[in-house]
Amino acid sequence: MSFRAINQKYLEPGSQVLMVLGIVALCQPWNMTLHTYGLTIILIGLIGFNITSKIAPEEEAGTGHAADARNPGAQH
What we know:
It is a single chain. The protein is mostly helical. Helices cover 67% and strands 0% of the residues. The longest helix has 25 residues, at 3-27. The radius of gyration is 17 Å and the shape is elongated.
């Protein structure tokens, strides 16, 4: 499994989940520590998502273009 496949399968969704958990930590009223670091958790997830979303997915075999696999009706 290549780095691009790991990124697409684990890292990008993981950073999205981290952003959601940061929102939950910021809005919950029970634990002051989670509330204190909620914004930091959101920012770490946001930075991680910005980095991982810039990495192109693996090219499909036979097409030569990764964009064709996601949008078969795209005009080139």
